[in-house]
Specification:
201 residues; mainly alpha; Serine Threonine Protein Phosphatase 5, Tetratricopeptide repeat; 78% helix; 0% strand
Length: 201
């Protein structure tokens, strides 16, 4: 009887844990949709237990040109354990806010080395490479981020920008079209549509 109760309890706990994971994942998707539609203040107000949400909150502060607040949030990621790839992502983003392109690239490379499956590590590496004017390598890094997370609109946007710098019209169009599909209400929509029209001439 005791064994049966224990098994039932474990099953219930397992279901509850599954529900928590599901709600957590849905929460991230909701926050992303807010970010993708330019609702940055709502993103900032989101709970930030998930480092991916924390990253979006910091980026929202940057979109609102609130640099000090963005640095404070990136510092939360940079304060994570050294073995955590997010620590490198946070350090890299902090370096970029201080115009330290070399430091940003070093930290982002460490993030990628720590977790080669983290899309944000490659995205941050792409940002650092762009700051270092290495747009070809940046495009490859952003491309990797989109492969790991195909539904991340702004990874596609950044990939499109980087590919446009190296005159890869085919890949520029591919990523910009994905961006418009994933983020139809994005503030950059008109800009991206204008670039696409230019490419099609």
């Amino acid at each position: 009887m005791k064994t049966r109760i224990t098994a039932t309890l474990l099953l219930a706990l397992g279901c509850a844990a599954g529900q928590i994971v599901s709600v957590h994942a849905q929460g991230l998707n909701d926050v992303r949709r807010l970010f993708d539609s330019g609702q940055y203040q709502q993103v900032i107000s989101a709970a930030a237990e998930d480092p991916r949400v924390t990253f979006l909150r910091a980026q929202s502060y940057e979109k609102l040109q609130q640099s000090n607040e963005a640095r404070q949030v990136y510092a939360q990621l940079a304060a994570r354990p050294e073995s955590d790839a997010w620590q490198g992502v946070g350090r890299s983003a902090l370096a970029l806010t201080s115009s330290d392109a070399a430091g940003a690239l070093e930290a982002s490379n460490q993030a990628v080395a720590r977790d080669g499956a983290l899309p944000e590590a490659y995205y941050q590496q792409g940002m650092a490479l762009s700051a270092n004017q290495d747009f070809g390598a940046a495009a490859v890094a952003f491309q990797k981020a989109t492969e790991l997370d195909p539904n991340w609109a702004y990874a596609h946007y950044s990939a499109g920008l980087a590919y446009s710098k190296v005159k890869r019209i085919d890949l520029t169009a591919q990523h910009f079209q994905a961006f418009l599909k994933l983020a139809p209400q994005a503030p950059e929509r008109a800009q991206v549509q204008s670039i696409l029209r230019t490419l099609n001439r």
